[in-house]
Structure formats: structure tokens, C-alpha cells
Specification:
151 residues, alpha+beta, Nuclear Transport Factor 2, Chain: A, two-stranded antiparallel ribbon, 27% helix, 41% strand, globular
């Protein structure tokens, strides 16, 4: 019989809070020196900015849902790795480090892998590996790469 560890419960709670779009509660789930690293955007968030990506995605994708596919838990290392998809329709502006993408009205089902390190029941680090090129392609903002690429 499989039991759910405290680390797995914590990470499931982190996703549940993100689904409610409560960025302050999300940020409170991190250690004081914890951080969120949006790898595809190349940005790390600390302190009061920890919930910023929750807010960014809530605005861009009001129907955002994270579908958890598989969770790998290594309790002896306080490590949780999650395969998931980010799902939603871009009905609002998507704020990125390079600029803002206006609402496209297009749906995305974007693969993602998240890696969490946990200390004393809180998230110390959260590395989010979103398949950015797939997401941008699904939103129709990459243009026609076939015309650009050399064969």
C-alpha cells in the first residue's frame, strides 16, 4: 500500500494554492531564503516576488489548470520532481521578461517538469522547466519558422 509522504502532501498543496490564484499564500509556502526559478524565462523570484508567476499566469490564463501526470518523491533527499502540463486559454496579456504577448484566445497544453527541494516542511527551491517553445507555438506567436530555417 502506497502512503503519501509529508513532502508529497506539501507539493500537492503548492499546486492546489496556485490553482486558487492566491499568490500570497503561495509565497508563504517557501522558506525565508527560498526561491522560484522560471528556467524558460531565465528569471529567479525571491521574497515578495515569489507569487508573481501565479499572478502572471492567472491574468494571461484565467482558466489555468495544472494537470499533474507523475510525481517522483525522494524523501531521504527532500526532493520532489513533478511531470505536468500547464493548460489554459490565453484570454489576457502574458507578461514575459522580453515583453508582453497580447491575448491570443488560443489554448495551450504545455509540458512542464518541476523540481522542488524542501527544508523543514517548506519549499527551499522550485525550478520550473516549462517547454516555452511549445507554449509559444501553441499560442501562435512564433510565426512561420519554416520560412526562417535553412534546409
Amino acid at each position: 500500500m502506497k502512503t503519501t509522504s509529508e513532502n508529497e502532501k506539501l507539493i500537492r498543496s503548492v499546486y492546489a494554492v496556485a490553482e486558487t490564484k492566491d499568490s500570497k499564500l503561495f509565497a508563504s509556502m517557501f522558506t525565508d531564503d527560498g526561491y522560484f526559478y522560471d528556467v524558460s524565462a531565465g528569471v529567479k523570484y525571491y521574497g515578495k516576488d515569489l507569487g508573481k508567476t501565479v499572478d502572471i499566469y492567472a491574468i494571461a490564463f484565467p482558466d489555468m489548470h495544472r494537470e499533474l501526470i507523475e510525481m517522483y518523491v525522494k524523501d531521504d533527499e527532500n526532493l520532489v520532481i513533478v511531470e505536468l502540463t500547464l493548460n489554459g486559454t490565453q484570454n489576457g496579456p502574458l507578461e514575459l521578461p522580453l515583453g508582453t504577448i497580447p491575448a491570443t484566445g488560443k489554448k495551450m497544453v504545455t509540458p512542464c517538469c518541476d523540481v522542488f527541494h524542501i527544508v523543514n516542511g517548506k519549499v527551499k527551491s522550485f525550478h520550473c522547466y516549462t517547454a516555452g517553445t511549445i507554449m509559444l507555438g501553441q499560442l501562435g506567436v512564433l510565426g512561420n519558422l519554416g520560412e526562417v530555417l535553412q534546409h
